[in-house]
Amino acid sequence: MELLKLKGIKQLFPLKHKDVIVLDDINISVEEGEFVALVGPSGCGKSTLLRIIAGLVKPSAGEVIFKGKKITGINQDVSIVFQTFGLLPWLDVTENITLGLEARGMSLKERLRKAFKYIDLVGLEGFEEAYPRELSGGMKQRVGIARALVMEPELLLMDEPFSALDAFTAQNLREEILRLWGSGNLSLKSIIMVTHNIEEAIYLADRVVVLSTHPGKVIGDIRIDMKRPRDKDSVEFTKLYDKIYSMVVTAKL
């Protein structure tokens, strides 16, 4: 079943003398149960597209259709995991995770019940009262993931969630995301992730959508028909990497 449909999305940003087209005629569909990665050169509008999907940015033209209905404001069924964590330093782990629930008017008892559930799911037990300054980068991102999941979204958006982490921590969190995605313990129906890392996209996603730049257009949509866990050294993985890499390089020209 189709969860999300982007129809003719166009985004202009005004400059002093002219408008710059960042995204042009973006048409993408995402089915329930799909993990989709968006890749492309810097400046191709990937992060802007995530914000349009979430309803944080209104497109200059086109429509965002979610579960058959046009989105005209913030989509309450979508959560975002950011690259830069975005934790409030004066709040502890539990308070950061429950911030969105508090904004929705949920009782303290229910907020804590949900928070402890997702603290356990993402491996933050024992850090409930820790402050961001006391956490490593990987732990901060676990808080960011828990904060997104506690809202129990149907669509999770991730904007380069592992790019600020060291290689070992990033790989651990990739495995954690796959574990959570396959666990059946979440409300999630689909995931869309922005990444510059082609290997990461192939390792995690069911589909890789490639965007060009100046302006951003869809130039490729590749299905990854490989069983998980995926062997990065396999011939199939290498062929997919080379194919997508060639498309990204071409997209820069």
Secondary structure topology:
Elements lengths: L1 E13 L4 E13 L3 E5 L6 H9 L6 E6 L2 E2 L7 E4 L11 H11 L4 H14 L15 H13 L5 E5 L7 H17 L6 E5 L3 H7 L2 E5 L6 E6 L11 H18 L1
Parallel strand pairs: 3-8, 3-9, 6-7, 7-8
Antiparallel strand pairs: 1-2, 1-4, 4-5, 9-10
Helix pairs in contact: 2-3, 2-4, 3-4, 6-7
Provide the descriptors you would attach to this structure in a database record:
25% strand; single chain; 253 residues; alpha/beta; 7 helices; 4-stranded antiparallel β-sheet; 10 strands; globular
Describe this structure as you would to a colleague:
This protein is an alpha/beta fold and 253 residues long. Helices cover 35% and strands 25% of the residues. The chain has 7 helices and 10 strands. Helix 3 packs across helix 4.
Q: Could you provide a short overview of the structure?
A:
With 253 residues, this protein is α/β, with parallel strands linked by helices. The chain has helices spanning 46-54, 93-103, 108-121, 137-149, 167-183, 198-204, 235-252, and strands at residues 2-14, 19-31, 35-39, 61-66, 69-70, 78-81, 155-159, 190-194, 207-211, 218-223. It has a 6-stranded mixed beta sheet with strand order 6-7-8-3-9-10, sandwiched between helices.
